[in-house]
Design goal:
The protein is α/β, with parallel strands linked by helices and about 450 residues long. The protein is built from 16 helices and 14 strands. The strands form four sheets. The chain has an eight-stranded parallel barrel, surrounded by four helices. Helix 10 packs parallel to helix 11 and helix 11 packs across helix 12. The structure holds D-xylose and calcium ion (2 copies).
């Protein structure tokens, strides 16, 4: 338990006045809020790729953080050291879930997918052995169908049927791993599922083939006993100029078109929402009203940068409004996966913990404040009142969808002109949120 992060104690809740950087100020796992404990509201997960693999390498420079865990990278010994380090990390923070891509947990054999699969069998055995008797479980698995050069033209949307089959083969193993590890979900993020130019692209075929890939993975998954949710993780761009799963609304329309909406839900990432020109809250609301709320990739972007920075969430306004949506939707079926990475100069082991602490505390405080907004009731009752005209008379018929065009026209003629629809009171409502956030 103290092998990889020897200077880090178990992180405990000490309250908002604590100055101890290795403590939670707001995340108090057993505290009950709106009838559930904080840990039930906030099923936090560790992202294998950022936390155990990414070393700060970027387009302009080498890695700055040492993620070797004392073993040469690219070996199965290193893969196992990451499992051990990951478990120690999760235990120290009280995190119960983890998420990974296939190639995060083993080195890929460049020449033989069967050898990669053998390694996956070995490492998933090891994960099961090492997590036995703990409460650490897999939240979701996914496959990296964007890094290998074979996916340069896409995976499910590749122009090459051979490449499509490699994507399918990886996903087959991915869903087998999800079943083996008891995961709640399986994620499709279409990193290369898009295009750069229509001059070389058969968009109709690409879209249809992606749906075929989803369908055969779903059918196979169900046939081997996968009971969890499949997730689409929308993202508008990066790495491709146009990505097919632009945002939640686009992805939901696609699922309905291909009859996949019973098995698939959304995995909403905050940074992808803002790249699409939406707020995080908007993407959650679109998911909720379509009964598609699934899981969340918890992070934040930088409004001054146009790319996916995957920063740890620290903006309380955003976490509050996110938790407001999640709580009102009845909670998450999945979890809150920190698809977040330390900034490149934050390169020590301590920084890994500070990052998770600020992320977990930001969602905990967001939950506390969201519950206060709900209990306060002024915002909900304002919205309720704003639409009161649909509660009776012609409005009720509109709400129920039974009204005719002639009835609407006759109503308008009788009124001659409508009554004032009323102020939207945006600034008043923003004031309420600020008051609740900052009153202490
Ligand atoms: C990249 C995505 C990716 C998915 C999983 O932008 O966020 O990490 O979450 O493939
Ligand atoms: Ca993500
Ligand atoms: Ca991202």
């Amino acid at each position: 338990m103290n092998q990889y992060f020897p200077n880090i104690p178990e992180i405990k809740f000490e309250g908002k006045d604590s100055k101890n950087p290795l403590s939670f100020k707001y995340y108090d796992p057993k505290r009950v809020i709106l009838g559930k404990t904080m840990e039930e509201h906030l099923p936090f997960a560790m992202a294998w790729w950022h936390n155990l693999c990414a070393n700060g390498v970027d387009m302009f420079g080498q890695g700055t953080a040492d993620k070797s865990f004392g073993v040469a990278p690219g070996t199965m010994e290193h893969a196992k050291a990451k499992v051990d380090a990951g478990i120690e990390f999760m235990k120290k923070l009280g995190i119960k879930y983890y998420c990974f891509h296939d190639v995060d947990i083993v080195p890929e054999d460049p020449d033989d997918i069967s050898e990669t699969n053998r390694r996956l069998d070995e490492i998933t055995d090891y994960i099961l052995e090492k997590t036995a008797g703990t409460d650490i479980k897999c939240l979701w698995t996914t496959c990296n169908m964007f890094g290998n050069p074979r996916f340069m033209n896409g995976a499910g949307s590749s122009n090459s049927a051979d490449v499509f089959c490699f994507a399918a083969a990886q996903a087959k193993k991915g869903i087998e791993n999800a079943v083996k590890l008891g995961a709640k979900g399986y994620v499709f993020w279409g990193g290369r599922e898009g295009y750069e130019t229509l001059l070389n692209t058969n968009m109709a075929l690409e879209e249809k083939n992606i749906a075929t890939l989803f369908r055969i993975v779903r059918d196979y998954g169900r046939s081997i006993g996968f009971k969890g949710d499949f997730y689409i993780e929308p993202k508008p761009k990066e790495p491709m100029k146009h990505q097919y799963d632009f945002d939640a609304a686009t992805a939901i329309g696609f699922l309905r078109k291909y009859g996949l909406d019973k098995d698939f839900r959304m995995n909403i990432e905050a940074n992808h929402a803002t790249l699409a020109g939406h707020t995080f809250q908007h993407e959650l609301r679109v998911s909720a009203i379509n009964n598609m709320m699934g899981s969340v990739d918890a992070n934040q972007g930088d409004m001054l940068l146009g790319w996916d920075t995957d920063q740890f969430p620290s903006n309380i306004y955003d976490t509050t409004m996110a938790m407001y949506e999640i709580v009102k939707a009845g909670g998450l079926r999945g979890g809150l996966n920190f698809d977040s990475k330390n900034r490149r100069p934050s390169n020590t082991m301590e920084d890994m913990f500070y990052a998770y602490i600020v992320g977990m505390d930001s969602f905990a405080l967001g939950l506390i404040k969201a519950a206060e907004i709900i209990e306060d009731g002024r915002i909900d009752s304002f919205v309720e009142e704003r639409y009161a005209s649909y509660n009776e008379g012609i409005g009720l018929k509109i709400r129920e969808g039974t009204v005719t065009l002639e009835e609407c026209a006759a109503h308008a003629a009788k009124l001659k002109k409508p009554a004032d629809p009323g102020s939207g009171r945006q600034e008043y409502l923003e004031g309420i949120v600020n008051n609740i956030l900052f009153r202490g």
